[in-house]
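<instruction>
Derive structure tokens from the sequence

<record> Sequence and structure tokens follow
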Amino acid sequence: MRRPSERGVPAPGRAGRAVRPGRERVRRFTRAERRVHRATATLMAVCVLTAGCLYLPFLAQLVGRRALMVTVHQWSGLLLPVPLLLGLASRALRADLTRLNRYGPHDRRWLRSALRRGSDRPAGKFNAGQKVYAAWLTGAVLVMAGTGLLMWFTRLAPLSWRTGATFVHDWLALAIVVVIAGHVWRAYGDPEARRGMRTGTVDREWARREHPLWKAEEAGEPEGRGPGRVR
């Protein structure tokens, strides 16, 4: 089976059928990047579900086996960074992490436009909202790991520290659930973005519309000016 190229070969659908025949597809994510995303999402889902079983009475009664839920929650939390760390062997993933960590004037324009519900939202491969989400979630996971270790290994710190760690852990967990729910809701409203994460390719017209500075970004042009825009 031929793999979808970046020059107009339609990407295969679930049943071997072409997705949007005749429309050009561009490569967005490699197989390694998609696997890292799926593994991280799975571990995060396990963390959230087991946390629900520990904190919500009706789920605790429904599932039972609290000790097992605690163990699964602890280890899924510890394993959460592992897919990303293993994925660093991928050059494409390292390049995308660099893009996520770089902000330019167009990102400020995107954020201002988003706050005002405007339509002027220039973006490279990742828009400013995705960059802020990735940075916030990374920081939140690190804080959750640190506070979780203080709660797990009670001899690491005095009682006052563990009390503070519990407070931060619980409320940050609630914030993470809200933010992830928003991420899922946004993804649900953009089928082409989901297809890009599922198959690795996206429609060229979608890329030109949603990420007009993507091609220029890859070419190293400032703010995507000139002929480097996705066309």
